Amino acid sequence: MFFSLNDVSFTRNSTFKMKDVTFGIERGEMLGIIGPNGSGKTTLLKIMAGILRPHRGSIMVNGSNMHTLKHRDLARIRAYVPEGIDLPFDYDVYDIVALGRHPYAGMLSGLDGKDRAAIDSAFELTDTRGLLHRKFFALSMGEKQRVMLAMAIAQGPELLLLDEPISHLDIGHQLAFVRTLKQLNRGGMTIVSALHELPIAQETFGRLCLMDSGRIVRACPAGDKGLLEDIKGVFGVNDERFIVCPSQE
Q: For residues 95 and 87, is the Cβ–Cβ distance under 8 A?
């Protein structure tokens, strides 16, 4: 197993509890995390990224306990793109994407040829080359999301964690974003993403993890027949037009 959570529990301010969460991710898998607002999707992703530390349980990656890894070693394994984008300074877009190469740079060394090639590839994959010399604060939310994805791609991770990555994109860029994820996955990258867009999640990800109130209701192939009924129950809806990918109707 490439990545696993084992009996993970987490409590936040007595208002949210995640208890005894256990599941694994195979190398090269695409896993979508779905569920209502407040169900725990972001918390789960932050725990997987090592940003939040569980109060109980363990997280294993490549056979090692994640919390025993050095920060730089962990940064070479996983990249995390949050939904909310908050930077302290108004950097040029190129400089932001170049930050993805930090885990590989020496203390005093600049970017080498391999770094620049990774950055160029990230711009190409995310169609952000036209934003190269713009200031980050001047970008739209959709452009910011694409730039942050470019930074994560430049990082060259084995595992890419995304929190609502298409929420601020128009339909054209949503579809382009999905194509990019599939291309990265074909190249060997393991991808886990939280999404609100249920039809896109079903079409994009081979397996879905449905969450509700800090627990995993079901983790199964996207086409699992029982998943639809669970989605109806968790979201409190009966109209399948809004929750089923057309190809699965």
A: no
